[in-house]
């Protein structure tokens, strides 16, 4: 069972108000800040890229496969000539959010900042893949509210705790179980599952077979196609034979995976 712990029930800030921990709740007008419109519309940028900007927001426990599926999907989109950006929870904490810890307030600020970054990418027509545990429902809802439902595609990695813990790729569950890591999501800090995600990925397929990252990425790819985010047919952008990306990996002596899904 996941740790339920306290109930997270922070209020959604009103439009134009900061959700930063400790920030004064002043409107942009009160701070004498004026929005400056760019000279090229979002629609023009999307037309140039032949795609519609959105964020595919992966949420789930540590070890649920968020980053693996996101990387797999990124390779599949690359092979189609789709412009993407990949934001990973650990990577973001090496730079943009290196000054944040793991308290409730700092987790909220972590997701708020990431939400603002994804919004910038999405508004330029880029399909953005965001891989974050993002354990609190209210923080994910804030990002959705800020971006708009059309731009926010929530992907719930519905992988049981026991499966994630058996994988434990970074050894974090072991450290949490012996008390060396405190407030670890799923152990002594809560994870609040999405109530109405656009996509739910289960550990097994309907036939009871364990789903591969490629199979999960294929489900997301189909969603993007069906909902009009990918405008260019596969036949116009398919890479014949090994992709340039795969060739580059081979030159670096890094194993290249088959992402032709």
From TrEMBL:
Tagged with keyword S-adenosyl-L-methionine: no
Pfam family of the protein (one): APS_kinase
UniProt pathway: Sulfur metabolism; hydrogen sulfide biosynthesis; sulfite from sulfate: step 2/3
Reaction(s) catalysed (UniProt annotation): adenosine 5'-phosphosulfate + ATP = 3'-phosphoadenylyl sulfate + ADP + H(+)
CDD domains xrefs: APSK (cd02027)
Primary enzyme class: transferase
Keyword Nucleotide-binding recorded: yes
EC number: 2.7.1.25
Domain APS kinase: 52-202
UniProtKB keywords: ATP-binding, Kinase, Nucleotide-binding, Transferase
Record's function text: Catalyzes the synthesis of activated sulfate.
Protein family according to the UniProt entry: Belongs to the APS kinase family.
Name of the protein in question: Adenylyl-sulfate kinase
């Amino acid at each position: 069972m996941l740790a339920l712990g306290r109930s997270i029930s922070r209020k959604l800030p009103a439009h134009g108000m900061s959700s930063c921990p400790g920030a004064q709740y002043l409107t942009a007008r009160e701070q004498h800040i004026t929005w400056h419109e760019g000279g090229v519309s979002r629609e023009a940028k999307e037309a140039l890229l032949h795609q519609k900007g959105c964020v595919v927001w992966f949420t789930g426990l540590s070890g649920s496969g968020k980053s693996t599926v996101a990387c797999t999907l990124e390779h599949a989109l690359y092979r189609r000539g789709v412009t993407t950006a990949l934001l990973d929870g650990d990577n973001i904490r090496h730079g943009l959010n290196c000054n944040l810890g793991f308290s409730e307030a700092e987790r909220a600020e972590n997701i708020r900042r990431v939400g603002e970054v994804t919004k910038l990418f999405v508004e330029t027509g880029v399909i953005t893949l965001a891989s974050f545990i993002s354990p609190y429902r209210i923080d994910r809802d804030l990002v959705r509210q800020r971006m708009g439902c059309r731009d926010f595609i929530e992907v719930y990695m519905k992988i049981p705790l026991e499966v994630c813990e058996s994988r434990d790729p970074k050894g974090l569950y072991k450290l949490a179980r012996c008390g060396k890591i405190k407030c670890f999501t799923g152990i002594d800090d809560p994870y609040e599952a999405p109530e109405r995600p656009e996509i739910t990925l289960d550990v097994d397929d309907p036939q009871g077979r364990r789903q591969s990252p490629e199979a999960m990425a294929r489900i997301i790819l189909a969603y993007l196609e069906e909902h009009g985010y990918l405008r260019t047919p596969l036949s116009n952008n398919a890479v014949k034979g090994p992709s340039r990306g795969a060739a580059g990996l081979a030159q670096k002596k890094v194993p290249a995976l088959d992402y032709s899904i």
